[in-house]
Write a structure and sequence with these properties.
Layout: E1 6-13, H1 19-30, H2 47-52, E2 60-66, E3 72-78, H3 87-94, E4 99-105, H4 112-123, E5 127-133, H5 142-153, E6 161-162, H6 171-181, E7 194-203, E8 207-216, E9 219-220, E10 224-227, E11 232-235, E12 238-242, E13 246-248, E14 251-252, E15 257-261, E16 275-278, E17 297-303, H7 309-321, E18 327-333, E19 337-344, H8 347-360, E20 365-367, E21 371-372, E22 374-378, E23 383-386, E24 398-413, H9 417-426, E25 430-437, E26 440-448, H10 456-463, E27 469-480, E28 482-489, E29 492-493, E30 499-502, H11 503-520, E31 528-534, E32 537-544, H12 550-556, H13 560-574, E33 577-580, E34 583-586, H14 587-592
Parallel strand pairs: 1-3, 1-4, 4-5, 5-6
Antiparallel strand pairs: 2-3, 7-8, 7-16, 8-15, 9-14, 10-11, 10-16, 12-13, 12-15, 17-19, 17-20, 17-21, 18-19, 22-23, 22-24, 24-26, 24-27, 25-26, 28-29, 28-30, 28-31, 31-32, 33-34
Helix pairs in contact: 3-4
Function: Promotes mitochondrial protein synthesis. May act as a fidelity factor of the translation reaction, by catalyzing a one-codon backward translocation of tRNAs on improperly translocated ribosomes. Binds to mitochondrial ribosomes in a GTP-dependent manner.
Family: Belongs to the GTP-binding elongation factor family. LepA subfamily. Belongs to the TRAFAC class translation factor GTPase superfamily. Classic translation factor GTPase family. LepA subfamily.
Subcellular location: Mitochondrion inner membrane
């Protein structure tokens, strides 16, 4: 195909504004799949993604479209992940495109992730076509939303396309806008091969599949290619495009997007942003490349039943095949035995992995307190990155500690503003900006990530009755007055409950954790002290009273069936308990104790 008949684009939107529905509609209208093949939301392929309506791995699809000018165009749609934790992956996908459709729900208007995503598209110089979706809804206000797009984002919305991705109305106009408003790629077919490694994933049949955008030159089957950053050489087995069925082609030329396979063993062997070139005739100038996305939230994951450890390891290995940003390494905890220290891009990523482990691999798991990565500056001048509060060096060796800060953008109807500001202030936030777009307020806060990882999303949802939207990016590490707080149950520290906390917050957190544990840990035959301590100093304390021996006898004495039932129930319940010294701690206590009220 000649370059002028190619369009490469992404769809950017706030979650639930209709990106996947529009993508499906575009595939359907251009005939990429027959109706029978057209399952709803083809691009969100993982079960969990579909259920939660999020896209984690960027997918791509090549559409053929005969435009009103009589010419046939190749439209490559690159899907981008739709959640705050995956912002970084969004920018990578966008850099393979020349344009983007900005989809905004006409009944909702611009939201926090609309902004975050569209700014990323503007940053990589994409041409943007605004699309107002859901105009079939009675609550749709296309004119108001157009004005808002112009006010808040600062792009011209007079020619925004008004559509209903659900009914298909306006979708043909979207296709015309892609052809007429978005620029064609440029590139030189005779130059040495230069291609961008956009993404990679593990396919059970094909092995590692690499998504590429050709800048210059031609990629063919049988070619020896070199990954310039990774400095590795492979022979190409297959070159193809996704329609979204994987379809082999002879070659991919400049401006085209497609996939290759080359006996690559692991996704981790491919680095996104790398430049792929011809080993025999390499390009002289590699592409700028990306920083790899690094995990920012860590937690321990342990099997409830120690016998499941190997199964857990195998399951994590499988998930990692497709998700190089998920990290894990073995960890031993005095309280929880053998498990893994795991790293994630954010809290949602953590939740997704945990749910997949439990659901797809049928494992019962204990997750320890999520922790951010602290920079610990030691008195000898060296620095360590702390992923696990349990590994904190002796305080006498520590000069100071630094914690990651984020810049958060929150949008909500202004009646919820008071609650939102209060929440941000409670979490040590520093207000940067407060503006209005109609009756919606937009606030920008800098916050320590540490204060966001526990239950910030949940609290934000509840103070705004679900109307607030949120987006963040990490800005930098800043010094903080941080201490390690330990929880002692029956005089013994439970490492899985240790947290790093700001000194001013330690006492309140300690008290709340002790109170919660008091309710969460069942009574035993003896009295159990529960203490929160910093160093050797106890800052909060509760006591679980002893169970009187005759209580069970009195209640259940005599009735044999009832007694047996009770025993069975206890046995089943035991599976969810962890023996810790002489005390049994229920699995849920590890999570619930950490919630902040
Ligand atoms: P995404 O998160 O941006 O991918 O959003 P989805 O495409 O998953 O859509 C979110 C929800 O909005 C789904 O329940 C869709 O059925 C619904 N939806 C999408 N487009 C329209 C539309 O044009 N009209 C109406 N009424 N609902 C829509
Ligand atoms: Mg979606």
């Amino acid at each position: 195909t000649s370059l002028k008949n190619i369009r490469n684009f992404s769809i950017v939107a706030h979650i639930d504004h209709g990106k996947s529905t529009l993508a499906d509609r575009l595939i359907q209208v251009t005939g990429g799949l027959s109706d029978r093949e057209m399952k709803e939301q083809v691009l969100d392929s993982m079960e969990l993604e579909r259920e939660r309506g999020i896209t984690i791995k960027a997918q791509t699809v090549r559409l053929e479209y005969k435009a009103q000018d009589g010419e046939t165009y190749i439209l490559n749609l690159i899907d981008t992940p739709g959640h705050v934790d995956f912002t970084y992956e969004v920018s990578r996908s966008l850099s393979a495109c020349e344009g983007a459709l900005l989809v905004v729900d006409a009944s909702q208007g611009v939201e926090a992730q609309t902004l975050a995503n569209v700014y990323q598209a503007i940053d990589v110089d994409l041409e943007i076509v605004p699309v107002l979706n859901k105009i079939d809804l009675p609550a749709a206000e296309p004119d108001r939303v157009k004005a808002q797009i112009e006010d808040v984002i600062g792009i011209d919305a007079t020619e925004a396309v008004e559509i209903s991705a659900k009914t298909g109305m306006g979708v043909p106009e979207v296709l015309e806008a892609i052809v007429t408003k978005l620029p064609a790629p440029d590139g030189d077919a005779d130059a040495a091969l230069k291609a961008l490694l956009v993404d990679s994933w593990y396919d059970p049949y094909l092995g590692v599949v690499v998504l590429v955008r050709i800048i210059d030159g031609v990629l063919k089957k049988g070619m020896r290619i070199r990954m310039m950053g990774a400095d590795a050489v492979y022979t190409v087995d297959q070159v193809g495009v996704s329609t979204p069925k994987k379809t082999p082609v002879d070659a991919l030329g400049p401006g085209e997007i497609g996939y290759l396979t080359a006996q690559i063993k692991e996704v981790a062997d491919t680095s996104v942003g790398d430049t792929i070139t011809d080993d025999r005739r390499p390009t002289t100038e590699p592409l700028p490349g990306f920083k790899p996305s690094v995990p920012v939230v860590f937690c321990g994951i342990f099997p409830v039943d120690a016998n499941d450890f190997e199964d857990l390891r195998a399951a994590m290995g499988k998930l990692r095949l497709n998700d190089a940003s998920f990290e894990f390494e073995m960890e031993t905890s005095a309280a929880l035995g053998f498990g893994f220290r795991c790293g994630f891009l954010g809290l949602l990523h953590l939740e997704i992995i945990r749910e997949r482990l439990e659901r797809e691999f049928n494992l019962d798991l204990i997750t320890t307190a999520p922790s951010v990565v602290y920079d610990i500056h030691l008195t000898d001048g060296s620095k360590i990155e702390l992923h696990n509060p349990a590994d904190l060096p002796d305080p006498v060796r520590i000069d100071h500690m630094e914690e990651p800060w984020i810049k958060a953008t929150i949008m909500a109807p202004d009646e919820y503003l008071g609650g939102i500001l209060k929440l941000c202030e409670e979490r040590r936030g520093v207000q940067q900006d407060l503006t209005y777009a109609g009756s919606r307020a937009m606030v920008v806060y800098e916050l320590p990530l540490n204060e966001v990882v526990f239950d910030f999303y949940d609290r934000l949802k509840s103070v705004s009755k679900g109307y607030a939207s949120f987006d963040y990016q990490i800005v930098e590490h800043r010094p903080g007055d941080l201490v390690k707080m330990q929880l002692l149950v029956n005089e013994e520290p439970v490492d899985a409950l240790s947290i790093i906390v700001h000194r001013e917050k330690a006492e309140a957190r300690g008290r709340s954790m002790c109170e919660k544990l008091k309710d969460l840990i069942p009574r035993h035959m003896f009295k159990i002290p529960i203490q929160a301590a910093i160093g050797g100093r106890v800052i909060a304390r509760e006591t679980i009273a002893a169970l009187r021996k005759d209580v069970t006898a009195k209640c259940y004495g005599g009735d044999a069936t009832r007694k047996r039932k009770l025993l069975e129930k206890q046995k089943a319940g035991k599976k969810k308990m962890r023996q810790f010294g002489r005390v049994e701690i229920p699995q849920e206590a590890f999570i619930k104790a950490l919630k902040i009220d």
